[in-house]
Amino acid sequence: MKLNELINCPYDIFITGIKTSSVNIQKGDLFICIDSKTMDRHLFIDDAISKGAAAVIVKHDIGSKTVPIIKVNNPNQVFVDIINKFYNYPTNKLQMIGVTGTDGKTTVATIIYQLLNNCAYIGTNGIIYNKYNEKTNNTTPSLDKTIPLFADMIKNGIKTVSMEVSSEALYYDRVNGIKFNCSILTNITKEHLNTHKTLENYVNCKCKLFDNTIGPCILNKDDEHYLEVSKHCKNIKTYGNSNDNDLYFKDVKLLKNKTLFTIVYQNKEYKIISPLIAMFNVYNLCAALLALLSLGYNIEFLIDKIKFIKISGRLENIDLGQKFQVFVDYAHTPNGISKLLEFMNSFNHNKLIVVFSEPGRRDKSKRASKGYNVITNCDYAIITSQDPRDEDPMDIANDLISKVKNYTNYEIILDRSEAIKKAINIANNNDIVLIIGKGNENYQIFKDKIVEFCDIDEVKKHLKNLLNK
User: Fold this and answer.
1) What is the pLDDT of residues 152-175, one digit of tens each?
2) Does domain 316-468 have CATH number 3.90.190.20?
3) Thinking of the domain 90-306, which architecture would CATH place it in?
4) Less Cβ crowding at N or C end of the chain, within 10 Å?
């Protein structure tokens, strides 16, 4: 499109794309200096022009440049308007389902993606639709990434987008301008205070998603922040464990390899056999089902597909024939870890062996309680490294053990592969090995490099070596 078709200006030049980061600029792009809250994009104008930007939209006077400069009062809103217009308003042609919450976003969004035909997924595990599969740096990418892909999804027959919407995405305006047809709340617990500073700010940020929802808002009535969030919803549907919900569950049987329970919806009972284990996955499945039922999908069609659901890296049971169980899980928040340990300890077992750590450059205030929680709720713990970034992994480990100095049921092995190997090698009949924090992620982030690493692959490698012996 021409620049004067996108915004009121005298410049009759063609624009080939819209970008807000100079790193991604290609020849012919329009560079918009949005307020990202972390940096002044005006500092990168010369870099954008050198890479081929055809024009720049700014908020501040910057003097003359070799390309057209357009000054506006609110570059953020102009960016939302322009990028949607450039790609012909693609989200208006898609059924947009947003999932937010402290824990369970990935699982709920993936359940929806796997239950539906012609559906795309965006979240922690990347962007997936048809044969397209791309890893992303953020759980919820920015609009200059997603809007072009939404347009491509439409061309490829996609009808629905199941999208994780993180609190940081809402804080940094990464979903501005998207009107969601349905939004889901899993739960809210104290988390991400390094960004939001207070729990109140965190809750308010989550509520932004429901302010921008034009269809049903699916809320967990058992969550302590339900009432706060409900004030931001026009069309509320609830799920939980009591019969005053639109969809509720009962008669739950938690097994090591599946979960049996009954859901009640519109006064009818339906038996569920789910391959997803643990009570929190009962909630996750109910959230996804209620969202799709509220959008008009057939309940028998959905229930029939439940048995095929598989969530990689979320309580993934790796069984190569060993005489003990090994689970890999993404759990990393205090709430998620507590519920996971409670579930594991509900089974008859000999020892529970846990491999865990904490990422670098995250909220340090929760490390001591996290270490205490894990070490006092397992038989043996191995503290390792988990994306230490530019922090010393030993400093992180020392923070984790600061409340358990008198305990003897743990050790520190900073090499994550060696930590996993040790856990597997000391496991005996009827033990449980639990490796938490990274799930199916395929990297480790250090100060000066990112290396390829996957807990699942490491488990399989060390199990094979053990069994071969």
Assistant:
1) 999 999 999 999 999 999 999 999
2) yes
3) 3-Layer(aba) Sandwich (3.40)
4) C
